[in-house]
Amino acid sequence: xxxxxxxxxxxxxxxxxxxxxxxxxxxxxxxxxxxxxxxxxxxxxxxxxxxxxxxxxxxxxxxxxxxxxxxxxxxxxxxxxxxxxxxxxxxxxxxxxxxxxxxxxxxxxxxxxxxxxxxxxxxxxxxxxxxxxxxxxxxxxxxxxxxxxxxxxxxxxxxxxxxxxxxxxxxxxxxxxxxxxxxxxxxxxxxxxxxxxxxxxxxxxxxxxxxxxxxxxxxxxxxxxxxxxxxxxxxxxxxxxxxxxxxxxxxxxxxxxxxxxxxxxxxxxxxxxxxxxxxxxxxxxxxxxxx
Length: 291
Ligand code: PXG
Hints:
The protein is of the alpha+beta class. It has helices at residues 24-28, 46-59, 68-81, 126-129, 156-167, 210-221, 233-237, 269-284; strands at 4-7, 10-13, 31-33, 36-39, 42-43, 87-94, 111-118, 131-139, 172-176, 182-185, 189-194, 197-200, 225-228, 241-246, 250-257, 260-261, 287-288. It folds into two domains: 4-118, Aminotransferase class 4, branched-chain amino acid transferase, N-terminal domain (D-amino Acid Aminotransferase, Chain A, domain 1), CATH 3.30.470.10; 126-282, D-amino Acid Aminotransferase, subunit A, domain 2 (D-amino Acid Aminotransferase, Chain A, domain 2, Alpha-Beta Barrel). The protein contains eight helices and 17 strands. Strand 1 (4-7) and strand 2 (10-13) form a beta hairpin. The site of 3-[O-phosphonopyridoxyl]--amino-benzoic acid has 16 residues, from helix 6 and strand 14.
């Protein structure tokens, strides 16, 4: 059975022509999106993702033409149509079809498109070996520009960073902010464990990751100290452990940053414990798709 997608009230085949070439999402990256996972027939942190989608829309003054509850029903319905057990859902809302001028008033109604497809862990065997990360020469766009808290369709900054990671044969790229502090990875948040404190940068210059919040909560439940504070590459290179968090990547141990081997070069024991706790949590909580 082919994949079914949702576009503006209709369900159609994944290859159906469905979005206008005059859509401002395509012409100007004028829109927002979310990345959501389903595990074991349940949608993980569904409300948190939907809230972030609506907050991103609000930040760019885009009205989503659906109530939150209705939006959630459509995602669940699409999951059912695609018989999702473990999946990745991608709601996308753009300014809609306009013309070649960038004035958003030319777009009469937002475009709502949703993908729901089967999905397995992103990094394969890298979870056992650990990930290699390089610092990109691109800086994370500061909040004075497109705010990195907005999950917008403007991911070129991130794509450029990923190209550098690919050229260095690395798994992920690490952004610094404009001041030179560590910000986040191209599609994941970044953590260090230093002096036993689970530490991540403040979210002013990076996406407020839902997986990051979950990792912080899991660490606190274990009685570990957690902290959000600015730190530099010096702290990264000398950290006891490093890891990334993201909806797609989950919790991924980092063992090499810019050719500096982190500690003994193996995924750290606290990171491994968090990975296990995260796995247990995603497999035992969430909004049921089929009830
Ligand atoms: N930072 C950025 C820039 C992201 O895009 C995260 C952090 C992690 O946030 P969550 O809430 O997911 O823990 C993200 C989100 C992909 C992919 O295909 C991943 C994301 C976004 C788009 C695509 O790997 N991660």
